[in-house]
Write a structure and sequence with these properties.
S-adenosyl-L-methionine binds at residues 61, 91, 109, 160. Substrate binds at residues 163, 189, 218. This is catechol O-methyltransferase. The chain is α/β, with parallel strands linked by helices and 233 residues long. It has a single domain, classed as Vaccinia Virus protein VP39 (Rossmann fold), CATH 3.40.50. The protein has 11 helices and 7 strands. The protein has helices at residues 2-20, 24-35, 41-54, 62-76, 90-96, 112-125, 138-141, 145-148, 166-175, 190-194, 196-204, and strands at 80-84, 104-109, 131-135, 154-159, 179-187, 208-216, 223-231. Strands 3-2-1-4-5-7-6 form a 7-stranded mixed beta sheet, with helices on both faces. A hairpin with a 6-residue loop joins β6 (208-216) and β7 (223-231). α2 packs across α3, α3 crosses α6 and α4 runs parallel beside α5 (90-96). The protein is globular. The protein starts with a helix and ends with a strand.
């Protein structure tokens, strides 16, 4: 798994970026703009999956774990959802297509280049009315959610950013009183690359009830899993 990631993410990607004079993320966006149906979020998701499974690997949640994400979102039926780690906007589009009328998703992205791609992806999918993209580090944005973005509490949180931020950001969500009884956290990549500190924290905490969903790393046959943690108050 690690060797495959190094090959895809570092060696192959850098060579292709140099030859084509554009980033992998821009290539994903271009493929969507040329091949997906504007205003159809399912078409956008399927087109990204097609590109990343056949052309270039990318760190979207992917189609297999995407079904776990879908099921969890549908069960939580959130009015207000938070995503940490937007990347190209794949999961923002995937989540937003399942939201009920009037619900909203706040998605946080630290990398300005990724945020620019994601904005175009979200708009092309036609879900910009449901999604608000917030640029900056999660540890700065989370404490601003109540006052600046009028969030009372979060019904659903998807953690898919830096793995070493999973635990401190979960603690921050608690300290900022952004979780209510029944709030659902879903964390990606808890086996590969892995988030052992997060698993240790939520599984040992009396405030969370956890469920593990074994799966595979996006677009690969490498073992991975998602962890659902329901806040008990």
């Amino acid at each position: 798994g690690t060797a495959a990631l190094i090959w895809n993410e570092i060696i192959r990607e850098k060579v292709t970026n140099f030859i084509m004079n554009q980033s992998k993320e821009q290539r994903i966006l271009n493929f969507v703009l040329q091949n997906a149906v504007r205003g159809d979020p399912c078409s956008v998701v399927d087109t990204i999956d097609k590109y990343c499974s056949q052309e270039e690997w990318a760190m979207n949640v992917g189609n297999e774990k995407g079904l776990i994400l879908d099921k969890t979102v549908e069960e939580a039926n959130p009015s207000v959802a938070l995503e940490l780690g937007t990347y190209c906007g794949y999961s923002a589009v995937r989540i937003s297509r399942l939201l009920k009328a009037g619900a909203r998703l706040l998605t946080v992205e630290f990398n300005p280049e990724f945020a620019a791609i994601a904005k175009q992806m979200i708009e092309f999918a036609g879900v910009q009315d449901k999604v608000k993209l917030l640029e900056g580090p999660s540890e700065k944005i989370i404490p601003q959610l109540k006052k600046k973005y009028e969030v009372d509490t979060l019904d659903f949180v998807f953690l898919d950013h830096w793995k070493d931020r999973y635990t401190p950001d979960t603690i921050l969500l608690q300290e900022c009183n952004l979780l209510r009884k029944g709030s659902v956290l879903l964390a990606d990549n808890v086996i590969f690359p892995g988030a052992p500190d997060f698993l240790n924290y939520v599984r040992k905490s009396p405030h969370f009830q956890c469920t593990n969903y074994p799966s595979h790393l996006e677009y690969m046959q490498v073992e991975d899993a998602m962890e659902k943690a329901v806040f008990l108050g």
